[in-house]
Every structure is written in structure tokens, then in C-alpha cells.
Amino acid sequence: MSVVPVSTRRVVGRADAASAAARAGAHLDLVRAPFTLPRSRILMLRDGDRLRVHTSEYERSLSECVALEALEVCDSAGVTLPITRVLPHVIEFGDQVSLTFAGASTWSVGVRSSGDVLVCWTRQPGDEPEEIRIGGPHAASVVFSLGPSREVEVAPSEDHGEHVEATRRVWLDWFASCPVVRPDLQDMAAFCWWVLGANTVELPHLGDARAVVPSKIGYVGLWQWDAYFIAVGLRHGDPELAREQLDLALRFPTPDGQLPDVIHEEGILASSDDLPAADRETLRRAGSAVADPSAPVPLTKPPLAAWAMRKVLEADGADPDWVRRMIGTIRRSQEWWFAHSDLDGDGLPEYGHPYSSGLDDSPVFDGPLPTTTPDLAAYLVRQDLELADLVERWGAEPEPDAGRAAAASAHRERARRTLAHLLTLWDEPTGRFRSLAAGRPVASDTIVGLMPLLTGGLPEAIVETLVTALDDPRRFATRWPIPTVAVGDPDHDPQRMWRGPVWVNTNALVADGLERSGHPDRARTLAERTLELVMHAGGPHEYFDPNTGERAAGATTAFGWSAALFIDLAVALSQGD
Predict the structure, then answer these.
(1) Count of Cβ atoms closer than 10 Å to residue 161 Cβ
(2) Alpha carbon distances (Å) from 155 to 140, 412, 568
(3) What is the assigned CATH class of domain 179-574?
(4) pLDDT confidence bin for 156, thresholds 50/70/90
(5) Domain boundaries along the sequence of the chain
(6) Is the pTM above the cut of 0.90?
(7) DSSP assignment of 272-333
(8) 305-312 vs 239-249: helix axis angle to the nearest 10?
């Protein structure tokens, strides 16, 4: 399952873009996948044959962001026309009326026949319905324009056909770079490529920067961890946009090198002082001691920047000066972990807040903080090893060329020391890597204990024990692998976020670890099963029930890193087929 450099991959040419768009359109049900446009903050979801129009905003729910409570199209007699087809660029009502975007904050409804229809809308719950006739003796279309406070203006228009074509071109341009994968994976790959385009937004305070967010429903910001996984998928079709995600994630380090957790339209989130009020209230309800800390707690995400950078640099066109600058930023962030997050001074950094782990609901964090975990240690080992290779090849600011060998050697030596610390967490009697909550062993059996495979340096006996755990039905051998909490753990819940469901990103990391640890066949099998899971469930959801393989009830749909990693795994598995 080794990754082939992007320069050797074929991508869908322009002649295939329409086919890829049609494949994606088959999944656009307007329930699990909204109607939207790259860079737009508008999304539309269906309620029967009516549409509800929302804006997509940081830390605001859909119910708080209603632009139109209802939008429907009726025939001349007032009978509602059914939604008959959805493609990335258009929604069709009956056989004569369509809706499309007319720009990032504008949409158009037009009729193609000589007859007339009624376009009806309700602005907010409880408002009186409004309507306008189009077609026949009236204008052929109507344009809805969204203002900065979610106010909507409506005006007749004759330009609907031009808007349909312009929106079609936006999506064809996007699908022109959809990667080619095996025939059995093409439909879902096209949908996943749509997800990445659909989840692209602009962050106004950063000019024209494009952030591919986890979801326009609930996750409107650039989370550091998500950006890494999303960039890894984007590199196969749009390496420039992939690099842009890394650039944004690494653009705002603190003076001591810490990378922020989130970059969003109102600023950044880098400490507990920056938490939204809703997050604090959620933590209070959970009885968390970190809801209102006495001193600010840094918030970041696991150190996978160099892992993602190395993968993205397999694509063509990277500017060497930019690469060296990014490597310098990653090196400073790596130093931050050892200088500022080794909270007990034992040489092995800890998580000072559950949010910094990316797995904040895991039972690993039910105990007191700080928490020592095997996954963080493994990521730090992997990052130092990746940095050693990157520095040797590219150099790094402010490292002069003459210092490359010494810098690389220092990274490898620290990786060796960190691996030695990691091995102290191995508990031979139970055959597990343990976490420590404020120095005390945590009994939870979770997927974080499999992440040390990523180091590629574990003793063979430990590797074999971890591989055996993947085959144990009392631990991780569920129908759809890998549950984030072992089946036999009392905290296992197949529906509750990080406490049992399957996540595509953790599966991808374990698959990577299996290959690095000498089990390429097992890595390929896990990758295949992960792709089967996404297809079985009907899309790249946030997380999945390990027993049924369906979307877990609380999971967001059309989720960014699930889509990106489906693409990445699908490309890797398609090489040579």
C-alpha cells in the first residue's frame, strides 16, 4: 500500500469532469449532502419538496443561521413541484424549473418553458409566505441575494441560463482534477471529491485564503488536525490547495512555537481563554475540571504536521523557500511540545487538555489531567523522524545548509529517546500500551494504544501482540474495524463519538502504522475495509457504528477528513490495478 508520488498518477481530464460530476450528483440527497458552492457560505437542505436555506458560520448551529425557512416552487395552479434531480450545479423541480447559484451569496430560480410558475418563500418561522411568478408574461427567473445579516432581497431576472452555465463551469473545473481510482471506487471517490470542493470557504480576515473546513454544518473553521488529513487527500488532485491548508494551519504559531487548535473567521483558538461559550457550557455539563481552568491552558492538536508535509511534498510545484519556512515552523512546534507540554518533567510530553488530543471524548480523558498517552508519544517520534528526512532534503529556516546533517541527527536522536519513553508505557501482563492520568494508570483499552505502530520501531513481540489485538473479538475485531474503544471495555459505546465508533482517520493512521511495522498485507486489508465502510454507509460521515457500519446517530455527514482520506486510500490501493 505504499504511496506512489503524485507526479506518476493520472487524474481525470476535462473530458471526464462531467462524468465525475454526475457520479457525485447521485449522492446529493439534500439531507446528508447539502446544495452549496465552493467558497460560498450558503447551503440548502430539503424538507420534503421544499428547501431550507442556511448560512454556514463558526460555532453557530443551522437553526441559528436560517436565511429562508422555506423555499418551494409551485405550478400555475399552486401545486408544489417535486424535486426531481440534483446535480452539483443545479436542483431541478419537475421538468421545467431549476435552481442554481448566481455567485457566492446569490441564487437563481428559473423556468425553461413558456408557462409560468410560482416561487414561494418564508423568511423566518412564523412569517407570512411571499411569492413571485416567473415565466410566461413575467421575467423568466428570480434572483435571491443574501446580505451580511442574513437578510434576503428578491428581484426578477432574465439571466438564469447564464447562471446555470457559470455554476456548471465552477463544478466542472473542480471535477477536472478528481483523481482516477479503481472502477469499484469511482462513484464514492467522485462524491468525496465533491465534499472537499463543497466544504471550501473563504476566511474574510485572511483575504482570499481558501480553507477546506471539516463541514459547512457545524465545523466552519480550519482545525489543525483536520487540515493535515484534508491536505493529504487534496494532494492527489489539487496540490496547490493542499499546500494552502498546511500554510493556514502553520501560519499563526505563538511566540513559543505552539500551533493553534483552530483558525476561524473571527480569529484563532489557541488557549482555553479562546473557547466559545458553548464549548465551556458543554464541558461544565460533563463535569470537566477544564471548563474553567484557573490559568489558561494551551489548545493545539497532535503533532502530525511533518507527516502531512512529507506526503503533500510528493506533489509537484512546491516552492523551496516556502517549504523551508514551513519546516522551520514545524520544528519550532515540535520544540514546544518538549519545552512546554512535558508537564511532569519526565521527558515525555502530555496532553494538558482533551481538546489537544483530537479525541477529546475518549475515556482516556475521564481521569485527572495532564494525561500521558501512547499516541502522543508515537506522533512525536514520527514527527522527529519525518523532520530529519525533510531537513536533510530541504533545509529549514533559519538552518544554514551546513547544519542540515547535524539537525537531522538531533531529530533522530530525540526520536530514539522518545521511543524509549514510549516503551515504558507498555504493560506486558495485559498486552497494552497504557495511558496515565496525572501519573496513575488508566484502565481504558482504546485505539490510542495502537498508534505506537506508527513509529516503525517497536520490538517485534509488541508488534505481534498489537496485531493479535486486531483479531480479538473482545477487543478490536468488530464487523467493521476499528472501534475507537475496545468491545470489552466497560466504556465501549458504538454510537458515542470517540468511545466506540469507527473513524476513518484513526483507521488510516493504524494502516500506516501496520505498513511501517512490517505488516503491509494487514495494512492493505484495513484500508480496503475502511473504503468498504464508507461505501456501505453511503458517504464519508464523521464516524460509524462498528457493528452495523452505518453512520452513528450524532455524526456529521459529508465530513472533510473522511472524504480526503477515502481519496488518499483509494488512490494508494488503485496503484498497479
Answers:
(1) 15
(2) 11, 64, 44
(3) mainly alpha
(4) very high
(5) 34-173, 179-574
(6) yes
(7) GGG--HHHHHHHHHTT-TTSS-SS--B----S-HHHHHHHHTTSS---HHHHHHHHHHHHHH
(8) 160
